[in-house]
Amino acid sequence: MTSHPVPSLEVSGLAYAYPDGTQALFGVDLVIGRGERVALLGPNGAGKTTLVMHLNGILTAGHGSVRVAGLDVRADTMKEIRRRVGLVFQDPDDQLFMPTVREDVAFGPANLGMRGAELDRRVRDALDRVGMLDAIDRPPHHLSFGQRRRVAVATVLAMEPEILVLDEPSSNLDPAARRELAEILRNLDVTVLMVTHDLPYALELCERSLILSGGVIAADGATRALLADADLLAAHRLELPYGFAVPAL
Ligand SMILES: Nc1ncnc2c1ncn2[C@@H]1O[C@H](COP(=O)(O)OP(=O)(O)OP(=O)(O)O)[C@@H](O)[C@H]1O
């Protein structure tokens, strides 16, 4: 008998309208398997943020369902869901608010009741994975933007999430910091969903991409194939940087 491992994420028939009546999602279906790295692409206003906010219950399904590792996102599962879905915001300063890096990274696991050597191991391990262990005793606001983004990733990794969701991870990074973060993300053994307008970054990091457009999944496939389809990109206001050539299949 073949086994069917539970996917990290299953979204089914998800529709959502904001209280003012703006319909942002019109029936989204997607499945992301454990360990996959997937880019979520789409023009401004496509519904990407609205979808992401459903993944950890900031918004709850108007219609349809969201399951993380087989667990329905609902009011009574929210605590567990927030542990399993690690959201890295676009602005690290939305995530870092303690006097030291150590305290920021310890905050989540400590909230789960972790203490002592186990907490210390979690914090060090998470910082080591993002190459920021040396900064453990520094105030986050003394770090560069790129370093703060890495610490923000560590705060989420310290929760040992099922799925890491990143909003525009390459924004405001210089080329070296961008490349270093890509190396870090590539080496993580966690499911990754990355919202990005940076198509080369999606190509570099994610074998698979989804295009969300007008509140529906307009395409789901190999990143390389999607980005090589000029008509598809144009139809959804996606543009590769000038002169960028997608490597041949
Ligand atoms: N709080 C809100 N109230 C009403 N409508 C909203 C609200 N937030 C977003 N919307 C609308 O929902 C739709 C989807 O917006 P959303 O922010 O999810 O798009 P997005 O794909 O993340 O865009 P961007 O790439 O610009 O960040 C848009 O029409 C937007 O105007």
TrEMBL record:
UniProt cross-references to Gene3D superfamilies, sorted A to Z: P-loop containing nucleotide triphosphate hydrolases
GO MF annotation list: ATP binding
Transmembrane regions listed in the UniProt entry: none
One Pfam match: ABC_tran
Organism name: Microtetraspora fusca
Its biological purpose: Probably part of an ABC transporter complex. Responsible for energy coupling to the transport system. Part of an ABC transporter complex. Responsible for energy coupling to the transport system.
Keyword Cell membrane: yes
Protein known as: ABC transporter ATP-binding protein
Keywords: ATP-binding, Cell membrane, Membrane, Nucleotide-binding, Translocase, Transport
Family membership: Belongs to the ABC transporter superfamily.
Membrane topology listed for this record: Peripheral membrane protein
Location of this chain's protein in the cell: Cell membrane
PROSITE patterns with a match to the protein in the record: ABC_TRANSPORTER_1, ABC_TRANSPORTER_2
Domain ABC transporter: 9-239
Family matches, as SMART domains: AAA
Signal peptide (UniProt feature, chain positions): none
